[in-house]
Amino acid sequence: LGAKSLSAAHRFLKRNKVYIAVLEEGFAFDAQIDRAMSELLRSFLGKKAGMRLVKHSHYVDDANKDTHSSSELQGAPTNLTHKSEICIAKVYAEDYALIELLEKTSCKGGEDYQAPCKRALDHILSRREELLK
């Protein structure tokens, strides 16, 4: 977002329509992008025109999609101690606050976009909550 503070990020999200796709294990990233694009088209073209365009679009099916590029960057997992994980969660407290804000402001639209978006962000927040118990 390029915001220097959480309040600046909040202002940006209020003024702009932001469609997000959450890169989180167990959540279909490509499907989220497809849903976000569908929501974007409906929002800008109107529901009927957007649906018509989405219906006639030829999305690549999941079987033929390449693996997301981030998986190519993945090396061997780093083994952090539990204390290290807790420390990292505390250091990134403002980032987690931004995730909560994104959930409230950017996971909007049709149920097929809204529900998976919220579940993916909730998954990230739940993991952090477990660390800070």
Summarize the helices and strands and which ones pair or pack:
Blueprint: H1 6-15, H2 29-45, H3 47-56, H4 69-73, H5 82-91, H6 93-106, H7 111-131
Helix pairs in contact: 1-6, 2-3, 2-7, 6-7
List keywords for this structure.
133 residues; mainly alpha
Can you describe this structure?
The chain is globular and about 50 Å long. It contains 7 helices and no strands. With 133 residues, it is an all-alpha fold. Helices cover 65% and strands 0% of the residues.
Summed up:
It contains 7 helices and no strands. By secondary structure, the protein is an all-alpha fold.
Overall geometry: globular
What is the beta-strand fraction?
under 5%
Count of DSSP helices?
Answer: 7
N- to C-terminal distance: 30 Å
What is the residue-mean pLDDT, rounded to a whole number? Answer: 77
- Counting DSSP E segments of at least 2 residues, the number of strands comes to 0
Largest beta-sheet characterization? none
